[in-house]
Amino acid sequence: MSEAVIIDLRSDTVTRPDEGMYQAIIDARVGDDVYGEDPTVNQLEAVAAQMLGKQAGLFVSSATQANLAAMLVHNARGEEILLGEQYHIFSSEAGGTSALGGIVLHPLATDERGGLSLPQVLAAIKEDDPHLPITRTLSLENTVSGRVQDPQQHRELAEAVRAQGMKVHLDGARLMNAAVALGKPAAEIVDPFDSVMLCLSKGLGAPVGAMLCGNYDFIKSARRLRKQLGGGMRQAGVIAACGLYVLEHNIERLAEDHETARQLAEGIISIEGLAVRHHTNMVFIEPDENDIEPLRLHLQDRQILIGEQKPPIRMVTHLDIDSAAIDRAVTAIHSFYR
Ligand SMILES: *Cc1c(COP(=O)(O)O)cnc(C)c1O
User: What's the CA-to-centroid distance between 41 and ligand 1, angstroms?
Assistant: First the structure.
């Protein structure tokens, strides 16, 4: 069967550039960004900073690199980050902050919405005692596995820890999904944070790249850190053009992904014995243990790919998934349970 008919629900990272994006690449003016001379990168950094209400922005190769650079700016060796145990920096970045920064990670249990509570965070801040690391940073996430976090609660957490002299970072890989779902400007959601990371290549659909934003001093330090991490790029305008393109064209349309995810969840909710949850552009199912591999293979035979994770198994909608694709997925899942 041809590649085009595959319905890939594993992640929103699998999207391919469309024609408009390829045209943006062709049209991009470029220069050497390590000299600060790439006009397209400079424009992307300005646009992203403005969109997030921060003084400056930095274009980096990946969301993981953005998080790592931010953590290395905020924390010296032996200092500590508080974060949710399932947050990406702790769970899925190969321990980079510890391996490369000598930074201690203190994972906290999250509630059913993926959040942290104020008393829990305050209790985790270490006293000034030579036995203990210095608690320097609180790192939050939005969305957390598709779940939108309450901006007011984030503000309370951020203000409380900043009052103790700590920094607060937002891993906003899918921040725009949260902004669209809440109907609030992203800048308002990230206002209480010292630094914020936005991934351009998740649901927004760029092939590569992420933005890190914060104040001038923070970004100046992050730029040096990016160099240390080998992330200085040269005529990066060819990829920055995709970033500009998605910030202009693909934010509002995330609502369509939330809608297709809803369509998928509603299509399979009636299946007996299959727990189904839906958050923004993600649907989670919990099949019976013995059904997991057979279901995956059944769908694979029908050119439908779902997440590899242990249950709950994830299905993610994105700009290459339309309502017709969801119809096919729903039919295929029903045909397994028939
Ligand atoms: C995907 C993701 C990242 C990292 O993105 P990469 O493209 O893999 O570097 C960081 N944080 C969160 C919450 C993510 O979902």
Answer: 21
Question: What pTM, to 2 d.p., does this model score?
Answer: 0.96
CATH match of 19-248 with 3.30.420.40: no
Q: What is the pLDDT of residues 181-192, one digit of tens each?
A: 999 999 999 999
Residue 69 DSSP label = H
User: In testing the pocket of ligand 1, which one of 140, 169, 199 has its CB within 8 Å of the most ligand atoms?
Assistant: 199
Residue spans of the chain under pLDDT 70: 1-4, 309
- Name the fold adopted by 253-337: Aspartate Aminotransferase, domain 1 (3.90.1150)
pLDDT of residue 238: 98
